[in-house]
Amino acid sequence: MLDLHCHILPGVDDGAVDLPDALELARDALATGVRAVFATSHLWEKLFDTSPEHNYAEWKHLVRELKRADIPLEVFPGAENYLASDVSAAEFAKKAVPLGENGKHVLFDFSLRQMPPHVGDAVDALARRGLTAVIAHPERNADLQRDPRPVADWIARGALIQINAPSLVGIHGEAPAAAAADLLERGAGHLLASDAHHRRRRPFCLDRGREIAARIVGAEEAKLMCEDRPWAIARGEDVDVPRDVNLESRARGARFLRKLFDS
Ligand SMILES: [Fe+2]
Q1: What is the rounded average pLDDT of the residues 165-183?
Q2: How confident is the model over 192-239, as pLDDT tens digits?
Q3: Which residues make up the environment of ion ligand 1, defined by Cβ < 5 Å?
Q4: How far apart are the CA of 65 and the centre of ligand 1, in A?
Q5: Which domains are present in the chain?
Q6: Cα(4)–Cα(234) distance, rounded to whole angstroms?
Q7: Nearest-5° Cα angle at 201, 197 to 204
Q8: pTM, to two decimals
Q9: Neighbours of 170 (CB within 10 A)
Q10: How much distance in Å is there from the Cα of 263 to the middle of ligand 1?
Q11: What's the gap in Å between 60 CA and the centre of ligand 1?
């Protein structure tokens, strides 16, 4: 599997604290069946004192150290770009750092509470630069838990939706679990990733997330979410998904949760 969202770079954000921690996280990734990751440290000016250049240098350093420690995890460069409410979509798209060197996909997140009004505009602005938006864990956003319909609009405009494995596993709590299950049930989740930060509190758990996803969408689709689509992104290829998604009804995750509790 290729885990396209994790915070494994040491000392740049709220993920791995130092090199030994990053190496242990890399071993954990391998133990969960992940053989490659994108290092997607936060690029979030107000919260983390780092830059694309600094993260890129740290990525190179980590790749060297993994080799030296004989840990066969492949690490690609990347970023989790933060869409702030006071930054225009055009400005955001201009600065966004893609997944992979010269990659075509841009992973981004935004506030977990209030959904900024210009997410769709950011998707369009990236597209105008030949880039495809990958929207990180919308199931964690409180506004979208109440009303997920904007997600359908972003998919129609060309975005891919990344669901957090820990949401399905229950690490983020009940509301994200139900919202994640609901998006998957209705074809509004295309990629699964661990968003790993910490060995115990926010671990690599793509294997457990994939098992739960497979119960909702079937094993074949779960494989697409954890293997085929992430690898296509790593190769800089377009990812083809159904664009017509209906998120009108409000039965969020209920069917899935019942199934889980009955089993
Ligand atoms: Fe993240």
Answers
A1: 95
A2: 999 999 999 999 999 999 999 999 999 999 999 999 999 999 999 999
A3: 80, 195
A4: 23
A5: 2-262 (3.20.20.140)
A6: 9
A7: 55
A8: 0.94
A9: 14
A10: 31
A11: 20
